[in-house]
Amino acid sequence: MTLDTQPSIIVFDVNETLLDITILEPLFERIFGNRLALREWFAQLILYSQTMTLSGLYAPFGELGIGALRMMASIHGATVTDRDIEELKERMGRMPAHPDAIPALTRLRDVGFRLVTLTNSASSPSPTPLERAGLGDFFERAFSVEAVEKFKPAPETYRLVAQEMGVETSDLCLVACHLWDTIGAQAAGCRGAFVARPHNALLPGPEVPSPDIVASALTDLAEQIIERWPVD
Amino acid sequence: MTLDTQPSIIVFDVNETLLDITILEPLFERIFGNRLALREWFAQLILYSQTMTLSGLYAPFGELGIGALRMMASIHGATVTDRDIEELKERMGRMPAHPDAIPALTRLRDVGFRLVTLTNSASSPSPTPLERAGLGDFFERAFSVEAVEKFKPAPETYRLVAQEMGVETSDLCLVACHLWDTIGAQAAGCRGAFVARPHNALLPGPEVPSPDIVASALTDLAEQIIERWPVD
């Protein structure tokens, strides 16, 4: 990767970056009496997805999510019923798009960027959560880490996208509201663009890669990408 | 590893398993108005330590801890001063032993198990936190993941202990109150024993290794180890 390399393909993270996970809050409010328990659950889900990959193991993201919910119930003395599990799956299947998603995707597509997604979630039959949220048509391809059975931020996940698209990782810019995702993408040779959603922030540290682009909304992020890496 | 292999060396995780991290709570209470913010911080610290290792990067655990504290301050609109950082380090240096630690370690040592520690924390000059807590004399060796520059649960961390002790990983039983640690240890060929400290629980899932031993206190855990794997 050289400094003058510029990405032509923008790779979007899905959960929380494009789709709004706060639709899950009423479930956590009911089970734990606190809607912010969603944050604890999501952090534990990500932590254990990384644990599995570091350990050379794999289970679908959705199964780990159910396990993390049951773990939290044990910790907090709460009860999780089969109906709660069904509601978790159902709500995850109909997460709405963040309001800044369609304007940003429209801008990036119109100036000529190729757009794909890469998610920790397993693939699902159509209509997918992205399609239900009205975002399906923006993307050439929708990648799941299940193809390599390793979760982000393992380098194999970003290389999967590059290989399937027939490009180098330096042709990719990963967009996410989770720094752990841009850290991994940048370590694998991609560019990284960070959008600061609520309950997310940068983690400063001398050895921690800073994102190439930081924005408070996807619309601003899209403009920064267009300005920095103009499409020929 | 065969089913009749039994471990002769017990490898203890340190933070939260032997030493009580709740001594940090007053700091989190002051900064975030909520002592349980400690839990969010510790989960994010573990998550980002795993992120770094998956990305082929390394920074000392203490530095990531400071970064995670600053990240949380950004998220919650709180302020972290240099004095707060100093207090974090100071409190982490004098975490007390859990009350069940000395009785359990005494029992295991007296029946002939060899005892060592393996921590994500960087090594520190004497007196170390373990020594200050009165636990230093129980252990033949104190290992830090800094030697391999990968955080637990990377398999290299457990193999480090086996190599340095001149044994196979199947000779080791890893004791921790964090399932992510026993998952990694078991995937690397060790036995895993889980002690259920407050705010910790098992994560059930079909592909997630169950610990060989589960206990609610280190004293009970020690008795189970002695009963299951009697020393010749």
What descriptors fit this protein?
232 residues, Rossmann fold, alpha/beta, DNA polymerase, domain 1, homodimer, 2 domains
The CATH architecture of the largest domain in chain A can be given as 3-Layer(aba) Sandwich
The CATH topology label of the largest domain in chain A is Rossmann fold
CATH class of the largest domain in chain A: Alpha Beta
Query: How far apart lie the N and C ends of chain A?
Result: 19 Å
Multimeric status of the protein: homodimer
- Structural class designation of chain A: alpha/beta
The most extensive interface between chains reads: A-B, 48 and 48 residues
CATH superfamily of the largest domain in chain A: HAD superfamily/HAD-like
Please count the beta strands of chain A (DSSP E, at least 2 residues each). Answer: 6
Total of helices of chain A: 9
Would you identify the regions of chain A where 5 or more consecutive residues have pLDDT less than 50? none
